[in-house]
Amino acid sequence: MPENATPLLDIAGLTKRYPTGDLALTDVSLRVPPGQVMALIGPSGAGKSTLIRCVNRLVEPSSGTVVLAGEALTTLSRGALRRARRRMGMIFQEYALVERLTVMENVLSGRLGYTGFWASWFRRFPRRDVEEAFRLLDRVGLAHMADKRADALSGGQRQRVGIVRALMQDPALLLVDEPTASLDPKTSRQIMRLIVELCEERGLAAIINIHDVALAQEFARRIVGLRAGRIVFDGGPDTLDAAALTSIYGEEDWSRTIRRLETEENVAETVA
Question: Which InterPro entries match (predicted)?
Answer without folding.
Answer: AAA+_ATPase, ABC_transporter-like_ATP-bd, ABC_transporter-like_CS, ABC_transpr_PhnC, MetN_ABC_transporter-like, P-loop_NTPase
